[in-house]
Amino acid sequence: MKSALAIAFLVSASFVAGGPIRSSSRQCGTRISKGKMIAAEKQFQALKESRLTMKAAAGADDSTPGPINVYFHVINKNETGTRDDGLIEDDIIEKQMKVLNEGYEQSGISFKLQNTSRVHNPEWFSSASPDSAYQTDMKKQLRQGGPGDLNVYLVGFEKGDAEGLLGYATFPSDYEGAPEDDGVVVLHSSLPEGSTAKFNEGKTLTHEVGHWAGLYHTFQGGCSKDGDQVADTAPQGRPTSGCPRDNAPDTCPGDKLTDPIHNFMDYSDDECLTEFTPGQKKRMYDQMRVFRKINYPELPEVGAPETPAEPETPTEPETPTEPETPAEPETPTEPTTPTESTTPTEPTTPTESTTPTESGTPTEPETPTESEAPSEPETSAEPETPEEPEFEFPWEF
Ligand SMILES: *[C@@H]1O[C@H](CO)[C@@H](O)[C@H](O)[C@H]1NC(C)=O
Ligand SMILES: *[C@@H]1O[C@H](CO)[C@@H](O)[C@H](O)[C@H]1NC(C)=O
Ligand SMILES: [Zn+2]
To answer: Which of 10, 50, 178, 304 is the most exposed place for a label (fewest CB within 10 A)?
Structure first.
C-alpha cells in the first residue's frame, strides 16, 4: 500500500514467549505525510465542488444510501489450532459487526456483513503490514466488490514491520490509484472478547473504518488549526494513552478545550472510545460521496467547538458628558459609530512545507546490535519513549 503509508512505525523487535510485544498504547499503522495530505486535500476540495455541480445539474437525488457491504477475510496460521491462531468464529464476527454499527449509528452510516472467507496462510497472518508484499498479495487474492465495499482482513501482526500493530487502513482518496489495495487490516485479537488487553472490544475496527471513510487521527497536525481537517474536534498535541476520563489532558492549552479522548479517531483504550463529531460525520459523507461513489447527502458546514465563554467584561458605560451647561442645545455629541470589528482572516491555506521524502528508506530506529551487551536482561521494551520524537515530525501514526 504505497500511497497512504510512508514509514511503518516499529515497535521493539524482541519477542517474549507466546507472541509479539505490544505497546501499552494503541498502534495504528495508518499514516500520511504532510505533503501527501496537502495534495489529497486539494484534490478533495476540487472534486467535491465539481461533483456538486454535476449533481445539481442532474437534479437532486434524495435516496438514502443503504448499508455498506462488508467482506471479512479471516486469515489463520493453523487450521486445527485455536482462536490465537486466527480461527475466529462467526459469532465473534457478528459481535464485531454489532460494535461497528453501534459506533456509526449516530453518523447515519450502517454496515451489513456480506460474506466471510477463511484462509490458511501463516505468512499473511504473521507478516502482512502496510508496505509488505504479503499484504499486497493477500488483498489481490481476496478483495471483493467496488469502491463502496468494505473489505476487512484479520491477521496476527507478529513479525517484522507488522509486529505490534493493531490495524491500518487505506483512505478513500487512495482507491482510484490502487483499488486492489483498498480496505482495512486489523489484529484478530482486537475483536470482541479477544486476547489483546484494553483493545478487545472491537473498537479498533471502528477506528480503522474511520480512516477508510476519510478521517485522520484527531491529533493529526498537533495543535495546528487545520489539524485533522475537521473543525469541531479539539486540537490535540499528542495521542491519548489509556482512558483518562476523570482527568482529560489539554495538550493544546491555548484553546481551553480538553483533548477529544472519547473520539474514535484518538488512541485511547477501547472502553474510552464512544463518539464521532458532527464535523467528522460531514467529512465522512463528503469523502465517501466523492471517492467511494456512495450517495451520502451534503450536510451543512460544521463550525468550531464552543470555547468555554469568558465572563463578559462589561463594556464601560460611556461617561456621559456632563450636561453642565444646559443652556446650549445645539452641539449634540455624535453617537460614536461602532468601530468595525476585525474582519475574520481567511483560514490560511497550509503552505507547502518541506515535503519529507516519501521514497527515502525509513531511518531505522537503531536496531540494537545483537552482539554487544548480552549480559543485560535489557529492558528495551520501554513502551512510551520510542515513538515520542516523531510528534514534531509531520507524520501521524
Ligand atoms: C496446530 O494446532 C494443533 C492443536 O493445537 C497442534 O497440535 C499443532 O501442532 C499445530 N500445528 C502447528 C503447525 O503449529
Ligand atoms: C463467500 O466467500 C467464499 C470464500 O471466498 C466463496 O467461496 C463464496 O462464493 C462467497 N459467497 C458469496 C455469496 O459471495
Ligand atoms: Zn489510526
So the answer is: 50
